[in-house]
Each structure stands twice: as C-alpha cells, then as structure tokens.
Design a protein that fits this description.
Blueprint: E1 2-4, H1 11-24, E2 34-37, H2 43-50, E3 55-59, H3 76-81, E4 86-89, H4 92-98, H5 102-114, E5 118-123, H6 127-131, H7 135-147, H8 152-155, E6 159-162, H9 176-194, H10 196-201, E7 203-206, H11 212-219, E8 228-229, H12 236-249
Helix pairs in contact: 1-2, 1-12, 5-7, 7-9, 11-12
C-alpha cells in the first residue's frame, strides 16, 4: 500500500500527516507493507517522523542519470541518501503533462533497480483508449516497454500499479471486475516476458479514486495486491481505513 501525496504538503504539513499515519499503524506490524511518497522537499521531514516505524517512504519520480548538469532533476543516489525505499515511475500525470514515454520509464527503471530501490511502475489507459477497446493493447505496450530486457529476478522485486487514467482524481472508479481483468492481463503479460514465477512474485497495485468505501471490494480481487492511493492518502483517517480494508482481505 502506497500513498502518493503528489504536489501537496509542505514539510511542516507532511511531518504532521506522517505522524498521524505512523501512530495509526503502531502495533500493526503484521499488516500490509505501507509506504508514502511525499514531494521531494518534504522527504527529509517525513523521514524524521517515520524512521524506526513500520512505514516506509519514497519519491514520486527520479532522473535516469546518476549525476550531472541536469538542472531541476533529482538523482537516485540522493534518494538513497534520504532513506527512500520506493520510487514511483511513469505516473499518468508524468506521461501526460511532462511527456514521459515508455522508453524514459524503462531507462529510469534500470537506474532505480541498479540502486537497490523498489520501483512502482505505473500503467493505464485513457478514457478514449478504453472506449475504443484498446485497454489491453495500451497496457501490454507499457508493460513491455518498461520491462523488456530487464532480468526476471529484477522484475520480480518491482511493483506495478494499474491506474486507469479516467479514474484518477475524477471520482470515477473501475469496477472490481474491470480492475481485476486488467490486473490479470498484466500478470499474463509479465508471465509471457519472464515466466509464471516472476509474474506471481510481482505485486500489482490498483490506483484510481480508491476510497474507504470501495477499497475492500477492490482488494478482495485475486490479482489486486494493494493500492497506490492518491487523494485519499492526504487524509490520515481515510488512508488508514484503506489500509485496514486491505488487512481484512488478507
């Protein structure tokens, strides 16, 4: 379970939210793995609160380059030094607004894996693509673009997040059956690339307007291993309720 805080929460606000989340999960060490990804400037503040707790932290993006004259970019070694364990790659907002491609996601994936961090690779179709019946085609292309040429052992420690673009921040949510169908397809595509054992080991999260009211039904699907939570992760109460919904389905 991962909370994507997007471009919200100043360091002071992030510190307060991280404290609420950590306190709410205190004593729940046997529950699902939980992480939060704040904006870059708030990572040190979140680390200050979460270090020594069961909650991990990560980043929302990174550069494919380890260092260099790349003004405004953040390198993976910097994230390692900040104690990050996860990096979100290829979020639909990065693809749509900032022009990221399957190729750039692949390049970043190699860098993140090389540093020993866990990538969360996002895939998903737009509303036009879904209505045109192209969901499987689009998701297959994104999975292959990210993972072809990556050793199977490395793929198996990667997290994939299916986030239908039409359901992100819109209040619309894929039905559990729709989400499960795509998750099953992702696992089949990974199996075709790297074998069934790798596909089974790869965690696949669902992201797209997950809320306390629909989380339990989504997480009860056999191929949905948790959630990449956007807006609801900005409320400790809602995020903790969603984590609790995953606990009840395990």
């Amino acid at each position: 379970m991962c909370g994507n805080w997007k471009m919200y929460k100043t360091p002071g606000e992030a510190r307060a939210l991280a404290r609420e989340v950590a306190n709410g999960l205190r004593g729940a060490d046997d529950g699902p793995e939980v992480a939060v990804c704040p904006p870059f400037p708030s990572i040190p503040a979140v680390r200050e609160i979460l270090e020594g707790t069961s909650v991990a932290w990560g980043a929302q993006n990174c550069s494919p380059h380890l260092e260099g004259a790349y003004t405004g970019e953040v390198a993976v070694p910097m994230l390692v030094d900040l104690g990050c364990r996860f990096v979100i790659l290829g979020h639909s907002e990065r693809r749509q607004i900032f022009g990221e491609t399957d190729s750039s996601v692949h390049e970043k994936l190699q860098t993140v894996l090389g540093a020993g961090l866990t990538p969360i690779v996002c895939v998903g179709e737009t509303l036009d693509e879904r209505e045109a019946g192209r969901t499987e085609e689009v998701v297959d292309r994104q999975i292959r673009g990210a993972f072809e040429g990556i050793p199977g052992a490395e793929v198996g420690r990667t997290v994939v997040a299916y986030e239908p673009v039409w359901a992100i921040g819109t209040g619309r949510t894929a039905t559990p059956e729709q989400a499960e169908a795509v998750h099953r397809r992702i696992r089949a595509t990974l199996s075709g690339l790297h074998g069934e054992d790798v596909a089974t080991a790869t965690r696949i999260l669902y992201g797209g307007s997950v809320k306390p009211g629909n989380a339990g039904e989504l997480f009860s699907q056999p191929n949905i291993d948790g959630g990449l939570i956007g807006g609801a992760s900005l409320s400790a109460r809602d995020f903790l309720a969603i984590v609790g919904a995953e606990c009840s389905t395990e």
